[in-house]
Structure formats: structure tokens, C-alpha cells
């Protein structure tokens, strides 16, 4: 898959591990989104911070990962499922780029909530792009599951 970019935000490394597996299987370029201010590594504190940001529609400034997407035709976008939606750093990325004519593939990690509204939220932000069916992973990353999904959507 040429010109593929795998962009992700991960606080506790679950989404990172999924992004790495997708990059390994597709040969795509990987890019981590890093917000200016980190979230707490204490789960309960992070939950409060995130809930507040999402309820305000806050999009944090990104200090890394927000470089141009112009040279990429296919962009896989990964996020943890936070309160049924995207992590705020991912929303920042989406709002700062033009996805017109690009193929966008969502992926997420979750603790039982599946995609929630993530696919709909990405579709709204990337309304002039082609959105392929994504994958939502709960628990351990199974390479064969990723392979099957990528084959199903025509990427492999």
C-alpha cells in the first residue's frame, strides 16, 4: 500500500501497539500525535481531564505528528475510545488538515465500547474523503485479525 500514513494518539500504549501492527503489515509510515500538555498517567485523573476537554470541544495544540499529509493518499487514523468519541489530540489533527479525495481508515482500541461514535465523528470531519470500514480492538492485538480486516477492506 503506497503513500500510506498511520496516525495515532495513545496514552496507555494500546492504540500505539495497534498502529505499529498496521504499519508492519501495510508498510506505511507511522506518526504519533503528541499534545503540548500531556495527560496524567494516573487513570482517574486522566479520565477527569479528558471528560472536561471532550465536553468543551477542546482541541489541544500538537507539538508532534501534525506535519503535512499532502504526500499521503491513504491515512489510517487511530484513537482510544474515550467517552464514545475521539481523543482530543486526534480531533486536533483532523481539524487541521484537508482530507479531500483521500482514503481514511479509522481504528481504535477500547475497553468494551467498540467504536462508539468514532467512525461517525471521523466521517463528519473528513466529509470529502473516502472512509473505509475500520477496526475496533479490545484487548490483545492479534496480527491475524488485523490481516483479515486489511484484506476485507482491500488494503492487502
Automatic annotation (TrEMBL):
One of its GO terms (molecular function) is FMN binding. Residues 4-152 form the Flavodoxin-like domain. SUPFAM superfamilies: Flavoproteins. This is Flavodoxin.
